[in-house]
Amino acid sequence: MKAEVASSSEKPKIPLPTLSQINADRITQLANQYWSPQTEESHLPYDAAIVESIYQAEILGSIFSVRRIMMLEFSQYLECYLWPQYRAGASRAHMMSIIVMINEKFRERVPAWQAFLKKPEHFPAFFEQVLRASVAEDNESRNMREQTALLLFLNHCFGSMEVQLCRDQVKRLVSLSMWISLQEGRRNQEFKAVPKWKKYWKAIQKKDKPELLEKLNWERRYLQRLMIKFMNILETVPEEGDVDPNVVRYCERFLELMIDLEALLPTRRFFNTVMDDCHLVVRCQLAPLTRRPEGQLFLQLLQMLKFYTRFEISDETGDPLTDRDMTLLHYSRITSLQKAAFAKFPDLRLFALANVASVDTRDSLHKHFGSLSDKALRGIATHLNLVPPEGKEHQAPHYRVDKEFLKELLISRHERRISQLEELNSMPLYPTEEVIWDENVVPTEIYSGENCLALPKLNLQFLTLHDYLLRNFNLFRLESTYEIRQDIEDAVYRLAPWRAEDDSVFFGGWARMAHPIQTFAVVEVAKPNIGDKAPSRVRADVTVALSVRNEIKHEWESLRKHDVCFLVTVRPTQGIGTKYDYRKSMVEQAGIVYVRGCEVEGMLDAAGRVIEEGPEPRPQLDGDSRTFRLLLDPNQYRLDLDRASKGKEDVYETFNIVMRRKPKENNFKAVLETIRELMNTECVVPEWLHDIVLGYGDPGQAHYTRMPNEIPTLDFNDTFLDMEHLRNSFPGYEVKVKTDDPRKLVRPFKVTFENVLRKQELGENAMDEDEEIKSIIVQPHVQPKRGPYLYNEPKKNNILFTPTQLEAIRSGMQPGLTLVVGPPGTGKTDVAVQIISNLYHNFPWQRTLVVTHSNQALNQLFEKVAELDVDERHLLRLGHGEEALQTDKDFSRYGRVNYVLAKRLELLEVVGRLQRTLDAGGDAGATCELAHHFHVYHVRPRWQTFTDAVQRDKTKSVETISKEFPFHEFFDDAPKPLFPGNSYDEDLEIALSCYRYINHIFEELEEFRAFELLRSGLDRSKYLLVKEAKIIAMTCTHAALKRSELVQMGFKYDNILMEESAQILEIETFIPLLLQNPQDGRSRLKRWIMIGDHHQLPPVVKNMAFQKYCNMEQSLFTRMVRLGVPYVELDAQGRARPSICNLYRWRYRALGDLGHVTRLPEYRAANAGLRYDFQLVNVEDFNGAGETEPSPYFYQNLAEAEYVVAVFMYMRIIGWPAERISILTTYNGQKHLIRDVIDKRCADNPLIGRPHKVTTVDKYQGQQNDIALVSLVRTKAVGHVRDLRRLIVAASRARLGLYIFARANLFRNCFELQPTFNQLVARPLELVLVPGERYPAQRAAGAAVPQELSLVARDMPHVARFVYDMYLERVRDHQRQEQAQQTWSAPGTARAAKSREPRHFVPSHPGADDDDDFQPTQIVNEVDEPEPN
């Protein structure tokens, strides 16, 4: 998040209550008296008047002040007072208080339903009270804020369908029985279209109990009543004059509820018809609010609602409708109207006889219907069952039958719809100034969660794959737009454009990422392709003067093909020398008028030609002027020209700034093109996955036990270390063994699952079996030896997998969907690697795609795979992260090509040697083809002769083998003797292994033969990717960027394994499923293994509104867990001491400890110099200050920063190695402050230096260290640590010691954090040191420390003073030792020759944060970027 915040002054932040205010507040005093868990012993009895008083004074009285509501919710008012005391018939204030608390929990994104789930029996009564209050017309219901809160609560219930409690209540409101509210004619029309629904309707009517009928019918008519109430309120808004903003908020929230009901298939199926029958969309379109400036958001929401009411889906079956289906539906509507017009309305004879295409536009329909009388319009509408017949109006008085309404109703129903796909394809991919600064679409980062937005949401379910992709497309586009906005504002702020006296633009500053334009010209506009309206290509040249430092000039010259840049027009109004204020809107200050995106084609050379990218060096250009060839967006160009032709300004003659972006953040266009491409192609998701991805059907249908092709016998290869390990891995199973000889019971083992065999025998009757057969047949098998050399022995796994890890491995080997939840330290990567290895050996013809979120995780995984028994030639790593691989081998595309070429030469040399030893003439070692001939005509015949001789020898004499063996000379370098002569069988096996060795050489050469035919590196690398590699690894970003290229190449794979799945955006998880073309209309994907942890941090979404309102941070992995897809949760951690693990153990099902965390010496010893292995250290204000906020969300706390650094210095002084200590914090601002303090206090001190890392908790996810010192920063409000996932990550980074520095009273009262903080506050809140100890400690963990040996740190200044004195003492000791050693030594003696090695390695940069891409030049004239909270 940038420090410069657009329009921050216009949208004030919610002022958070401070701790002192909380303590002194009336709410806190009442909480202490009545419900606070801390004062439970002294609570007064429940008093309903208190609830009434709080509601009137604190909620209604404060006009729903977010600040007061936050304090009530934080005090656990709902959990400890409101819900436990709720009974049917409770007061309105009691019900409304619960509603407001639940809404606040959703606003803050903390778990909301826990209190209800503990005591669910009163929820139905509560829900009914809410429904009745939301449609009541009495005086109490006049408060629009209350009504809006009720709507919001209803929406939360519909959005929480995975919670049984909510599902049971809301599904009754949207079932088929709600059609009781339709007009009778309309209902019969619908039943005629879908006869089976009539059958269900009759069955429902028979089932209804007479005594419950009134209540049931009230529920069934509820949504219709709600819509009628809304339309009445909406139509009270006048065309001009004052309007109550609360009424506008209510209308916006109502449309949001309607959109959410329409966007879910279970709620939409019957509701869509009822809403259509109420004519809600048409009534909204005609409402005066849409024409008022206050109605802008309402209008945008209405467009979304209109889009979903006409969505391309069959409400009956839930199947997607193609463009052709939609056109046929449209035609049938028009033709039925034409038939009716022909028969009954002679005024419309012309309309009735016209062809459809000539009468289905808005204009032509207006022409035909505009002149009709009221009576004729009413007659047509009645005939189509749109309004009740004359005389029956009293049955449904809410219908409008005025002329204006009926005309709009008929036109909007019959006008031609624009194809969604056509609209999408003609949409410019680059954002323009209209979208970038539209607050309703791309809100600023200060999003409080109070208002709704015109944005799609990602919830549990989607209508179709098209809907799924479209929502993700829009959100991804807008999230990247938000980042682009920040970059543009940052660049413009740095360039400081001013208005010169002659009205030209003068730039007073400079920016690394942007430059003023010297000249800009469109140089080519190519003709449109057939069927398109936009040009096929638009090229332009832009010239800039790069009079900057060489490294920055080099960055501009290194712009690559397809890099995205932005062209900006600024017209500043401020004179030269005016200071820019980054707190105010940059658009107004700098006068940003236009923004257009473009793609770089290349830089031009002196002759005006594009410099091609390639291995040859780029030409050196003279001077500072550089011209770049750009590709403009043809769709946008067409729109701009259309505007210019209507007298508007030509945008392309105004640009004066060109801006580039960091390559890492600049891949949005490629990802958007990929999503758009997917929407234009027939998306083939495997049948067994389709419904799960959309969120429907049985969530367990893709589990391996439910798959029809479950495999009964699996070769677990080297998974089990021995037979005992295998028995322990299947607890509760009867283990049958084919042999009793213990010498033969050695790995590898094949395991047959008898229940799978039984299932296959029974077929469809398998489900009738009462009890599953829990028995396995184990069969050890000897792997044939691969040759006589020691290096021919395969590498073996040496990890003792737990039974749960084994279940995850078994599931991953079987077809279907496997979800593995891996809590911190449970060996997720080891499980992933073993699955990859086992798939490779069980199914050698299949290919596995490995995808992760970060390069670091991919490299860790890849290094471990490379260490197992996987042939190196089958490994390939795509993307730019392979440079960081900690192996001496190059696994990138070109690295693999070079490896194959080198290996080919090496093998041909071996073949040449074999030829010489056999005295066979020719040059077999020259090419793969000659080697193949040599194999067929020389090697095989000799081996055949040998086998014949062995078979003829009936005596099975040992000498025969040695005597007849034809390759003695070739294996001269093998361990001697080649044939020991102990037994015939042993010698024969050695001879066979020798032949296998030779055969393998020729097999490999046969695979490499293509490389002799393919000459270019690119062709060879493609061949490698498509044919040779069996395990291909890439990041999800690379998959999204390169999808079209991979599909074009014919890339194929059978299995996907995803690590860090819970950290990958939904769409970036989905794209890797579709990196190949379908075969015969079906996907060849057999397995999808996702490994992650949804209890740790989600994907990073920078914009708060998209993160919170749109739920964009929800990963597909998390959604599947929410849907109830079965998963394996690993249950034994081997990272942290058990005491530290207890801090987060409660968050997981049954997380245990591996033996070594209590057995190994480092876990048995205490942490040197520290009394406890974990502690919460209370940090009070220093110089009267706690947290500070120099710029929005850039939080710092000097007291905590100094305290953390003082403890780090203390640990270094007593001997702890710097690389064993990491300093973490929850805010970017604090990270920078701690680095500054380290620089000041100890960075250059050879005795202390810098810690291993100083970074944020979010950045440190996936890493660990012995000691973690964590600063929580906040002292006024809990902030984003209230997100439990962040706390879990913070607490689980340490192996041996965790020391958290925070304001204890603030965090201990937070309901969500209590399971962890209750353990933390049970220990002293003042840091307890043991100054006499040295590292490593001799004291056992948990051993008592005498009081006189420990030091209780009162506060930060006390520790800092103590550390300073201790340091001086250490320096004096060091000096005394130096002086004692400075006696004269004769030259040449050992003592004089001793070199003094530095004591430890100190990184060159604070925190040595490799992931920050630190370059010294980057901080020149730069503003620090705080992290979003």
What keyword list fits this structure?
globular; 1429 residues; disordered N terminus
Structure, described:
It is a single chain. With 1429 residues, this protein is α/β, with parallel strands linked by helices. 44% of the residues lie in helices and 10% in strands.
Strand content: 5-15%
Neighbour order of strands in the largest sheet: 15-16-14-17-18-13-19
- Give helix % range: 40-55%
Rg calculated over all Cα atoms:
37 Å
Number of helices: 57
Q: Report low-confidence residues grouped into runs of 5 or more.
A: 1-13, 1388-1429
List how many beta strands DSSP finds: 30
What about the largest sheet? 7 strands, parallel
Q: Give the CA-based shape.
A: globular
Coarse structural class = alpha/beta
Mean pLDDT: 87
Distance between the termini: 9 Å
